[in-house]
Each structure stands twice: as C-alpha cells, then as structure tokens.
Amino acid sequence: MVGLVLGTCLALVQHFEVPVLGKLVRGYVALMRSIPLILVLFWFFFLVPIVLGHLGGSGRPVPIGATWTAFITFGLFEAAYYSEIIRVGLRAVNRGQFEACQALALSTFDTYRAVILPQVLRVASPIILSQTIILFQDTSLVYVLSLTDLLGAASKLAQLNGRLVEMYLVIAVVYLAISSAASQCVASLRKRYAIAGLRR
Amino acid sequence: MLEFAEGNRASIVTVENLVKRFGHFTALNDVNLTVAVGEKIVLCGPSGSGKSTLIRCINHIEKHDAGRIVVDGIELSDRMTDVNGVRREVGMVFQSFNLFPHLSVVENCMLAPMKVRGLSRTDAHERAIGLLRKVRIHDQANKYPGQLSGGQQQRVAIARALCMQPKIMLFDEPTSALDPEMVKEVLDTMVELAKDGMTMVCVTHEMGFAREIADRVVFMDRGSIVEEADPETFFRAPRTERARDFLGQIIH
C-alpha cells in the first residue's frame, strides 16, 4: 500500500520531468530494480541504524527493529516497481484527455486526480495485482532478519515434529489459496468497476 | 481586410502578428484576427494550413512564439500566472470528442463546473441536465461515452463545454471524425447555438454550415490568412487563386 502510493508519486515526478528530482528518481528506480530484495533488507537492517546514529549525533547505532526494517524496505523496494507500472500507464493515456482538461480549465491536481489517474489505475490493475502477489510471496525473505512469517513458522514447526514434506506441502497450498483468492477478488472488482462501453 | 471586424461591437479575441513554430516548421506566420462579441467565424483551408493551430493558440493549448493574443481583456503569455482564468471563459470542442471515458455523460458535464466554478453537486447536476436537454441527449445522461455513437458523443462534448458558461466557443473540426449520417445532428446543434447568440470560431469544411451561420469566412493557407469575406462573397467570388482551388476541391 505504502509502496503503491509512493510509487505513484515517483512516477508523477518522472512524468512531469521535474528538473533534478526526475533524474534522481530515475536513478533510484534503476538501482532498486537491479539489486535483490534480500540485499536491500540486509542494508537497511545494518546500515540505517548506523546512519541514524550519526545523524542523531550520538555516534551509536539506533536500532530500528526487524519489523520496521521489513516494512520500510518493502515499501521503498516495491515503490520502484509500482512507479514503473504507473509511469507506463500514464504514457498510455491519450493526449486528448490532457487537452480536454486544459480546455476545461481544470487545475493540474484535479486533472490527475479526477481524470488521468483513475484511468491509469484501471488499465494497470492486472499488472499491479501480479506485482502485489509477488510481494506477498517475497515476504518470506524476512527470515534473514530472524522475523517469522508464514513460511518461517511452517519450517520451524516442520523441524519440531519432523514432518518436513507435509508442512511444506501445506504451506504451498496456503500460498496458492491466498494468491488465487486475491486474483479472483480483483477479477470480480474489475468486472464491477468496468467502464461500460469501453473497449481496450 | 478588417472591414468586418471593426464594427462598433467590442472584440473578445484579438490576435496580432501571431507566429507559431514547430521546430523548423512555421505553422502560423504573422496572423491577425479579431473576433467581435457574438460573431461567428468559420476558418477553412487545406490541411496543414494552420487553422487548428490558430484556435489552439487562443486557449493556450499551444504556446505561441511571437505576437500578441488578447482574450477577454487578458493577454496570453508564458509568464502569465493564471492561464486558467482565460480557459474558464473559452469552451472548446475537439475533433476526437475527448470525453472522459471513466465518467458517465452527466459526470463529464459536472466535473469542471464543480472543480473550477465551485458549483455544488446539485447545481452542477441541474445545469448539466439542462444543457444535455438542449443538445437533446438528456435521456442518455447516465450512460458512458463508449456506449454512445460518435454524433451523440460530440453533442455531449458540446454540452460539457457549455456547462462552463463560456463567452466564446472554439470548434476544431467537430464533424470530421463522424460518419456522414451523424454530421447533421452535430451541425444542427451548432446552428442552434449560433442562433442563441454564442460567439463561435469554427474550423470546418462544412460549407453549408458556413453559409448558414457564419458572419465571416476566413481562408488560411500555409500558415497565413489569405482571404476573409462574408460567406456569400467568399463562395460566389473568391478573390485569390488558392481559395478558388480549395473551393473547387471541396465542392464537387
């Protein structure tokens, strides 16, 4: 969620070609997309406390905790991916839509909020969904911060009672169930909010 | 040249020595045009002659490179802080309708009055329905643009522009994207609007329409105004070779 909102902002910065910021954002997105998530998690866990410590002036690392690290990292990491999706979506909107907004004297804010972004989100929703399902599966990576997620819990149980195969099968089924339920849910949402008469 | 423009009526648009370039291509070269309040002007000319560019400069969708444009007493320039102050008073209808596909017909008409003019939802709805009735499409108010025919969509686009209660309406080839049988319903709507006294600048090749409502026909070619006259004179006795060629091509 945080990633989606932040990603939309990043995409808009690039779309408007904001002088310096636009380039920075492009660099950020390229960087985030070229390194593995697991590495980013490590960096945040070990580096950010040190940086915070320096900023705080005490020189001692300020621990931010594994859970917060996970949240922040996922937010920042996913923002890069979502921003690419939204950026492409923005380019897909017909120029005439922008001109119609100009001709009606709509402010830039209203243009994007009421006209452009609703269209972008509708077009991009299947890709946003698949990215979100990937994110859900990636949450298992938090084991590197000794956090326990679904998969982590299952493997702990498996080691306790020695039934590795069964536990991993069960957990695979759970992932499958949740992911396909999400797909179903979005498909029905799409049907409900489909724009009548609009051919894509 | 200016005998028709310089009446005792106040002018709403004044264009002086307008120049517009796209890269090395000069789209408009030293164009002068005055539109009086209540006047109906038809702009015609071969494609690429700069007529669309000219009206797109009037509401600053295209930014001009030199010359002056004054709309409703406000000069358009890059430095101006409130271009929307001008655009509020200038309605525009596009060749490709440009309705908002995700909003219903009535919502298309309500959006700008609510956001820009600050109307309440109830007032905006009332105004929208009133104008949709005027263009005879109020029975489709809750449909989406994709469910309507081209002619119906263009009439919605006209109603959407009118909902802002503009002082002048610009039409950029409003019937060029329509199937032949739908051209008439849009032209009828425009004729009605003209008879209500709206100030209009229309880019169109519909010469019957020009004859019926235009106070003045302006003929453009290669970025300049070549000839202007009242429709009778223009169609019966065009003064320039280029206008004669053009008329020969479009009137079979």
TrEMBL record, chain A:
Membrane topology term reads:
Multi-pass membrane protein
Q: Does the keyword DNA-binding apply?
A: no
Using the record's annotation, list all stretches that form the ABC transmembrane type-1 domain.
1-182
Q: What is the official name of this protein in its record?
A: Glutamate/aspartate import permease protein GltK
Q: Which UniProt keywords apply?
A: Amino-acid transport, Cell membrane, Membrane, Transmembrane, Transmembrane helix, Transport
Does the record's keyword annotation contain Transferase? no
UniProt xrefs under InterPro entries? AA_ABC_transptr_permease_3TM (IPR010065), ArtM/GltK/GlnP/TcyL/YhdX-like (IPR043429), MetI-like (IPR000515), MetI-like_sf (IPR035906)
Which species does this protein come from? Answer: Bradyrhizobium yuanmingense
The record's GO CC annotations read: ATP-binding cassette (ABC) transporter complex
For this protein, the record's PROSITE patterns field holds: ABC_TM1 (PS50928)
The membrane spanning regions, by residue number, are 32-52, 64-82, 167-189
**Which GO terms fall under molecular function for this chain's record?**
transmembrane transporter activity
Cell compartments where the protein resides: Cell inner membrane; Cell membrane
Q: What is annotated about its quaternary structure and interactions?
A: The complex is composed of two ATP-binding proteins (GltL), two transmembrane proteins (GltJ and GltK) and a solute-binding protein (GltI).
Return the PANTHER family for the record: GLUTAMATE_ASPARTATE IMPORT PERMEASE PROTEIN GLTK, MEMBRANE COMPONENT OF AMINO ACID ABC TRANSPORTER
> Which Pfam families does the record associate with it?
BPD_transp_1
Q: What is the lineage of its organism?
A: Bacteria, Pseudomonadati, Pseudomonadota, Alphaproteobacteria, Hyphomicrobiales
UniProtKB/TrEMBL annotation, chain B:
InterPro entries membership: AAA+_ATPase, ABC_ATPase_HisP-typ, ABC_transporter-like_ATP-bd, ABC_transporter-like_CS, MetN_ABC_transporter-like, P-loop_NTPase
Question: CDD domains, alphabetically?
Answer: ABC_HisP_GlnQ
Q: Where is the ABC transporter domain?
A: 13-247
- Gene3D superfamilies from the xrefs? P-loop containing nucleotide triphosphate hydrolases
Alphabetically sorted, this entry's keywords are: ATP-binding, Nucleotide-binding, Transport
Q: Which GO terms describe its molecular function?
A: ABC-type amino acid transporter activity; ATP binding; ATP hydrolysis activity
* Superkingdom of the source species: Bacteria
The record's family statement is: Belongs to the ABC transporter superfamily.
Q: What does this protein do?
A: Involved in beta-(1-->2)glucan export. Transmembrane domains (TMD) form a pore in the inner membrane and the ATP-binding domain (NBD) is responsible for energy generation.
Record protein name field? Amino acid ABC transporter ATP-binding protein, PAAT family
Q: Which species does the entry assign this protein to?
A: Bradyrhizobium yuanmingense
